[in-house]
Design a protein that fits this description.
This protein is an alpha/beta fold and about 375 residues long. It folds into 2 domains: about 100 residues, Alpha-Beta Complex (Aspartate Aminotransferase, domain 1); about 220 residues, 3-Layer(aba) Sandwich (Aspartate Aminotransferase, domain 2), CATH 3.40.640.10. It contains 14 helices and 11 strands. The protein binds pyridoxal-5'-phosphate (PLP).
């Protein structure tokens, strides 16, 4: 019997098991990367808005080269990679390095803000459904959340938020583009809102999905932070850069606010994540590749929903919110049996479902499963 593993079988074997064996001499580094990326994900995960193509080859190399530094703290010289990254972000955003705080995922930044404002025991105004991390944490400190429903287009209702401002308000939270709806606010409307409202209270703008609208020229609210307005912006390396598992994100605000928020952080990020983010920022090729793949995924999903006559929201993110017409529990259960994970329930939109773009092969499986769902 021929015991030699053929090149094709080796690729298949690695794809299925993810086995790690030395490949040098058998295939080149580009193919090694392809194999890693072609690793089949079971169950198919279309539930957390990750970028399954990441990290890029350049970032993988940077992480491996940084291993010798793992014995060092990432915040003291000469290994202060966090401050190096903060300087890099600051340069890109046109702000002072003291206006940037790198955190363990943007979630840590959201929680630190929830803690800082929550402890005032006043009121945070936010729309629902949205990304909840900041409000959930603030509630732990007995802060009240004044929930505003989304408008008819499933967008943040800025007028109603403005109407609810009182002397009890400590902060306004806006997620733009919003998770789970994928909708984006009119840029002038948002800018005017932030300009006016930040005179009365702090405005937090969660821009986790900002990168997906960058090519449309959508403005970031960091431009208002730069001008000294009372605004905090959060961003992440978890989405288009494909680094969700490394936990790295950041906040941008005025220096005083950043130093208050720094005191509310818990663990921060780590040296490998910092190296990864520093290199990810420069990898424009991968950034564009990810955006292209995401657009392919979005268009595929739009066509699927149109074929099935399902309402959906045009997305400015890496997921689509569609009206399944059935309770989300039923959709989730059905998909789970097909080894596909979809987004959680987003009350009060129980008949809607959020689906991440994932890889094309995963979306094809989702498409078959969804068509089956409507046959049963
Ligand atoms: C709107 C929004 N903000 C923040 C986050 C948190 O991301 P991370 O902590 O990975 O940076 C997410 C995660 O999905 C999100 O959807």
């Amino acid at each position: 019997m021929n015991k030699q593993i053929s090149r094709r079988n080796l690729i298949k074997l690695l794809g299925i098991s993810g086995a790690s064996i030395p490949l040098t001499g058998l295939i080149n580094s580009k193919e090694i990367n392809l194999i890693k990326n072609s690793k089949e994900s079971i169950p198919i995960k279309l539930s957390s808005n990750e970028n399954p193509y990441g990290p890029s080859e350049k970032v993988r190399d940077a992480i491996v080269s940084a291993f010798d530094e793992v014995c060092r703290y990432p915040y003291s010289e000469p290994y202060n990679r966090i401050s190096q990254l903060e300087k890099k972000i600051a340069k890109r955003e046109g702000v002072d390095p003291g206006m940037v705080l790198v955190t363990g995922g943007s979630n840590e930044g959201l929680r630190a803000t929830g803690r800082l404002f929550g402890i005032e025991k006043k009121e945070i105004i936010a729309c629902k459904p949205t990304y909840l991390a900041l409000m959930t944490y603030a509630k732990e400190f007995d802060c009240k959340i004044n929930w505003v429903p989304l408008d008819k287009e499933l967008k943040y209702d800025l007028n109603e938020m403005k109407n609810r401002i009182s002397d009890k308000t400590s902060m306004i939270f806006i997620c733009n583009p919003n998770n789970p709806t994928g909708t984006i606010l009119d840029s002038n409307a948002l800018e005017n809102f932030c300009l006016n409202i930040s005179k009365k209270t702090c405005v937090f703008v969660d821009e986790a999905y900002y990168d997906y609208s960058i090519n449309d020229g959508y403005p970031t609210m960091t431009k208002l932070v730069r001008k000294g307005h009372n605004i905090i912006v959060s961003r992440t390396f978890s989405k288009v850069y494909g680094l969700a598992g490394l936990r790295i994100g950041y906040l941008i605000s005025n220096k005083e606010r950043i130093s208050q928020l720094k005191k509310c952080t818990m663990a921060g990020t780590n040296i490998l994540a910092s190296h990864a983010a520093i290199n990810a920022y420069d990898d424009i090729e991968f950034f564009n590749y990810s955006l292209n793949k995401n657009n392919q995924g979005l268009n595929f999903l739009y066509s699927l929903f149109e074929d099935l006559g399902l309402e959906y929201k045009k997305s400015y993110t890496n997921f689509v919110f569609f009206k399944s017409g059935h309770h989300i529990d039923k959709v989730q259960d059905f998909m789970k049996k097909k080894n596909i994970l979809v987004g959680r329930a987003f009350p009060p939109y129980f008949n809607w479902c959020r689906i991440s773009t994932g890889k094309m092969e995963d979306l094809e499986k989702f498409s078959i499963a969804l068509k089956d769902f409507y046959k049963t």
